[in-house]
Structure formats: structure tokens, C-alpha cells
């Protein structure tokens, strides 16, 4: 059996496991709704899903039992048929699907031991790089290295958008070698930040030449990068001394409106006993997604808390890293400045104020210099990955 066939077989088994657990989960939700209607909105346990009784309860019990049996049988069948499965290796479509699954369902994938969970590593053209290969890339560079950090529910291949890749263009125009990070965006930002800091320390410790390090980070990647700087300083890492500049592209430094809206919906659904069971559907979203509500970057922001509570912004202030030149690009779909376009819509996911780190509380306000900020108008969250003006701005900042 070929390696690609084996990978494909594991993918299908893992997807089957997700489907099996999803059916059981939906069965729980439907039964909870049924239970509420039967009891006319009576009280229900907050810890255990309510169960119906009698014939109705027996039906739901049997659905769960049969689903589990089918799920186990699917794994066995796929193991037997894996030798017959033949398909080419990974594709951009498959990689995009895996990125979304990890971004939204990471908690489930990790707890269940699902092999679809993405490990953090550097890749080139979608293929994992060994430590030796990374060291060779660094050695062959001219001492200028740009780490490309993608955003939520995305992957390293998606830096290439409509034929343009900021990393490849920087290599062509400025001789800066790009190195693409691939990571599980569904994990807590602080977990990814610590792993990123440790990874940078490990690869740069092997370099025999001085490195001028840059980070280009899109969306959530900017929060992960800020978290890495925080923990790098906390751990006493040497790579921070080599970090010269960070460029943030549409980073939700103070949160993303969609996640804030999702949190409100969770709590509104739980107010009414008839809609409360459906709140569980929203709560399948990962730790990484809920960290986007206010822009969490450290463990203290979430540890020991219910991440679905409507608790307000209780973040630990984390300033921009000292001694590093930090630049911010914000996008807005509006062609002219306005409170609605910039303040409420922004690039469709992140407002201009959040992307530029502005906050009414001085302790949370990020001190980007005016000359190190740029607003791209008539530009959405993803267009800043390939917009000519966005690239020219990045190139100008890194060429200084």
C-alpha cells in the first residue's frame, strides 16, 4: 500500500469518526429539545443532557447504540479496504478542508485522538520540512528570513492567492527568504504562541550565521505572533534578539465582531428552555475561535474560565514587543472613512480600530507609530493577501 493511500485511508477513517460522533451529538440535542417540549419548559440539568423516558427514550437510546456500532464497523471496513484505495497525494482542496476542520473542531479532534489534528511545523509547498531541511533553507538564505504565519481556519498554501504570494514576492524583490508556518488554528492562541516560540528557538539555535528575522502575520497569525513574543521573553529565548520587524495584516488585536456576535447568540439561546438545546451547536466551536472574541494572547485570559460565558473583556494587557518595529495593515470594504464602514464592518471580519490596535483603555491600546499603519480601502479581509497596494506597503516597510 502506498503512503498516499495510507494517508487517504486515515483521512476517511477520521472523517467517519467525526460523522459518527456528530450523529450522536445531534441525537442528544434533538432528544433534549423533545424532553423540553414534553415537560413544557421544565427545569433541566446543566451538566447532563436530559433523557426522555418510555418508548421515546428507548428510540433515542437505540439510535446512539446503532450509530456507535456502525462507527466501529466503518473503521474495520476501511482497514480492510485501504489496500484498494488509490488516490494522489494531498491537494489544496483537501488542505483547506483540514484547516477548517481544525480551526472549528480542534477541541474534539484532540480529545478524541483523531488523526486529522494538525501539528505545528514548517512546510514548503504543502509538504512538511524536517529539521535538517529547515536548517538548510536558513543556511542558504542571505541572513534575512521572513516567517509567514497564516490566519484562522487557513493553511500555509493559502498565502498564494490569485497567483500572488507575499513571501515569494519578498524573495524576488528583496532577497528575503520565506519560511511558512503551518499550525492548528483551533488551539488556544497562547498554546500556539508557546509552541511557535519554542519552534523558533529550536531552529535558530542551529544557525551558524546571524539572522535578521521578520514575521508576516495574517489575521489570527498576528495574535499567535504576539503571544510567541510574550512567551519568548518569558522563557528567555534568544530568537527575540534577532527579530527585527513584524507586519500584522488584518489582525483582530481587540477581537472580531463575528465571534462577539456568536457569544451573544449562545447566551440568548440559553435564556429560553425551548432554544437552550440549540446553544450546544454553537458551543462546538474551538478554543481558538473563542479567543478571537477579544483577542486573547496569554493563558491567563482563558484559564479557569467558561469561555462561552458573557463575561466581557478581561484580558491581561500585552504590549507590542520591545525593540521590534511593528507595522499594522487594516482593511475596510468602505471606499471612504465612516463610522459604519470602519467601526462596524471593517474588512468584513475585523474593524479598522481592532486591526490598528486602538483601544479606549490605555493599558490595552497598542502603540503602533502613525507612520507604521496603513488602511487599505475597498479591501476585504482576504484581499490583503494579494492586493498590490498591500504588498507594496509591506515591501516598503521591510526595505527600510
Top keywords for this entry?
single chain, 400 residues, alpha/beta, Rossmann fold, 2 domains, 8-stranded mixed β-sheet
Description:
The chain has 400 residues and is an alpha/beta fold. Helices cover 46% and strands 12% of the residues. The protein folds into two domains: 3-89, no CATH class; 121-255 and 315-399, Alpha/Beta hydrolase fold, catalytic domain (Rossmann fold, 3-Layer(aba) Sandwich), CATH 3.40.50.1820. The chain starts with a helix and ends with a helix. Helix 1 runs antiparallel to helix 9 (276-282), helix 5 packs across helix 13 (388-399) and helix 8 packs antiparallel against helix 9. The protein is built from 13 helices and ten strands. Strand 4 (160-161) and strand 5 form a beta hairpin. Residues 40-44, 74-88, 260-272 and 274-281 have low confidence and may be disordered. Strands 2-1-6-3-7-8-9-10 form an eight-stranded mixed sheet, sandwiched between helices. Strands 4-5 form a two-stranded antiparallel sheet. The protein is globular, with a radius of gyration of 23 Å.
Mean pLDDT: 79
State the major sheet.
Answer: 8 strands, mixed
> CATH topology of the largest domain, which one?
Rossmann fold
Number of helices: 13
The SSE order reads: HHHEEHEEEHEHEHEHHHEHHEH
Structural class: alpha/beta
CATH architecture of the largest domain: 3-Layer(aba) Sandwich
Strand order within the widest beta sheet? 2-1-6-3-7-8-9-10
C-alpha termini separation: 52 Å
Helix content: 40-55%
Number of strands: 10
Amino acid at each position: 500500500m502506498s503512503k498516499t493511500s495510507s494517508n487517504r485511508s486515515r483521512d476517511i477513517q477520521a472523517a467517519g469518526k467525526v460523522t459518527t460522533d456528530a450523529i450522536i451529538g445531534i441525537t442528544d440535542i434533538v432528544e433534549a429539545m423533545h424532553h423540553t417540549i414534553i415537560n413544557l419548559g421544565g427545569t433541566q440539568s446543566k451538566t447532563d443532557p436530559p433523557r426522555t423516558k418510555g418508548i421515546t427514550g428507548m428510540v433515542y437510546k437505540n439510535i446512539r447504540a446503532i450509530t456507535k456500532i456502525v462507527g466501529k464497523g466503518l473503521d474495520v471496513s476501511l482497514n480492510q479496504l485501504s489496500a484498494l484505495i488509490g488516490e494522489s497525494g494531498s491537494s489544496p482542496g483537501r488542505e483547506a478542508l483540514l484547516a477548517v476542520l481544525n480551526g472549528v473542531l480542534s477541541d474534539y479532534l484532540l480529545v478524541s485522538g483523531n488523526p486529522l489534528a494538525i501539528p505545528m511545523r514548517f512546510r514548503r509547498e504543502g509538504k512538511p520540512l524536517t529539521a535538517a531541511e529547515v536548517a538548510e533553507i536558513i543556511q542558504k538564505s542571505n541572513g534575512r528570513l521572513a516567517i509567514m504565519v497564516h490566519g484562522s481556519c487557513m493553511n500555509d498554501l493559502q498565502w498564494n492567492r490569485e497567483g500572488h504570494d507575499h513571501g515569494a514576492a519578498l524573495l524576488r524583490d528583496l532577497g528575503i527568504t520565506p519560511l511558512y508556518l503551518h499550525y492548528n488554528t483551533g488551539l488556544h492562541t497562547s498554546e500556539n504562541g508557546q509552541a511557535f516560540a519554542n519552534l523558533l528557538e529550536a531552529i535558530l539555535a542551529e544557525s551558524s550565521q546571524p539572522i535578521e528575522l521578520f514575521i508576516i502575520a495574517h489575521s489570527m497569525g498576528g495574535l499567535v505572533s504576539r503571544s510567541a513574543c510574550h512567551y519568548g521573553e518569558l522563557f528567555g529565548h534568544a530568537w527575540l534578539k534577532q527579530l527585527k520587524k513584524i507586519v500584522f495584516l488584518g489582525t483582530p488585536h481587540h477581537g472580531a465582531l463575528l465571534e462577539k456576535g456568536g457569544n451573544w447568540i449562545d447566551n440568548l439561546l440559553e435564556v429560553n428552555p425551548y432554544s437552550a438545546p440549540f446553544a450546544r451547536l454553537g458551543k462546538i466551536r474551538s478554543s481558538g475561535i473563542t479567543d478571537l472574541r477579544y483577542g486573547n494572547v496569554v493563558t491567563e485570559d482563558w484559564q479557569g474560565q467558561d469561555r462561552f460565558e458573557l463575561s466581557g473583556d478581561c484580558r491581561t494587557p500585552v504590549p507590542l514587543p520591545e525593540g521590534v518595529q511593528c507595522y499594522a495593515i487594516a482593511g475596510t470594504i468602505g471606499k471612504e472613512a465612516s463610522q459604519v464602514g470602519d467601526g462596524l464592518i471593517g474588512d468584513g471580519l475585523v474593524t479598522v480600530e481592532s486591526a490598528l490596535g486602538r483601544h479606549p483603555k490605555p493599558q490595552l491600546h497598542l502603540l503602533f507609530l502613525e507612520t507604521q499603519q496603513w488602511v487599505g480601502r475597498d479591501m476585504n479581509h482576504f484581499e490583503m493577501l494579494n492586493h498590490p497596494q498591500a504588498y507594496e506597503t509591506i515591501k516598503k516597510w521591510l526595505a527600510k
